[in-house]
Design brief:
- 49% of the residues lie in helices and 12% in strands.
- It is α/β, with parallel strands linked by helices and 219 residues long.
- The chain has two domains: 146 residues, Rossmann fold (3-Layer(aba) Sandwich); 66 residues.
- Helix 1 crosses helix 4 and helix 4 packs parallel to helix 6.
């Protein structure tokens, strides 16, 4: 019996992973600077500070590193506030769970302000009893703490809750903690598709087939 569901946001409900791949390009464009063709690949393994330092050196920016970081964060904030969309089927999927009386929580690595702004604009904020963030919990999703605190808020044990994730390491964490797991396809984690299938109780190409999910999850 399903008595609760915990949803990751980025890449699971929100079609947002692309911003983290092209934020450098967007930032330079906001300053009317043409980015090099492979900038996203160059910045991907860097921290925010390292990336800002690279942009300063490579594009001879007059701003200091902290000012560049602030500009990058502003680009990300604007994306969540006014641009990010839901992944296909996400709104209906949440509505159906709510209609069936299943309490929902969100567990995200992103900033609360950004997630709440996006969810409010997209009309899904009211679906969640509570939103949990890794920064507020104090540890990332390599630890099950965020899922366990969400489960406590939902009032159900892990074995009666589904965790929806698109990232392999996060899904594996939830699985080890005793939760049912549903992997949701995202282009950013396509390389892990087979491993996600192996790790999850259910693998969802998207969120458009709620009846199919419910039938499989209720077995």
């Amino acid at each position: 019996m399903i008595r609760g569901a915990i949803f990751d946001m980025d890449g699971t409900l929100l079609d947002s992973m692309g911003i983290w791949e092209d934020v450098g390009v967007r930032y330079l464009a906001s300053r009317h600077i043409q980015a090099e063709e492979n900038l996203s690949e160059i910045l991907f393994p860097m921290s925010l500070e390292e990336g800002a330092s690279y942009l300063k050196r490579r594009y001879r920016l007059s701003l200091d590193v902290q000012e560049i970081i602030s500009g990058i964060l502003s680009v990300i904030r604007d994306f969540y506030v006014s641009e990010v969309t839901l992944k296909p089927g996400a709104a209906h999927f949440l509505e159906e769970l709510c209609r069936m009386g299943i309490p929902l929580a969100a567990a995200t690595s992103s900033d609360r302000e950004l997630i709440e702004a996006a969810c409010r604009r997209l009309g899904i904020l009211g679906c969640f009893q509570q939103i949990f963030t890794c920064s507020e919990i104090g540890v990332g999703k390599e630890s099950p703490k965020i899922y366990l605190e969400a489960a406590a808020a939902l009032g159900a044990p892990p074995e009666e809750i589904f965790v929806f994730e698109d990232a392999l390491f996060a899904l594996a964490t939830a699985k080890r903690a005793g939760f049912h797991t549903a992997a949701v396809y995202d282009a950013s984690s396509a390389r892990d598709a087979q491993a996600l299938r192996n790790c999850s109780d259910l693998y969802l190409e998207d969120l458009t087939d709620f009846p199919g999910f419910w039938k499989a999850a209720s077995r």
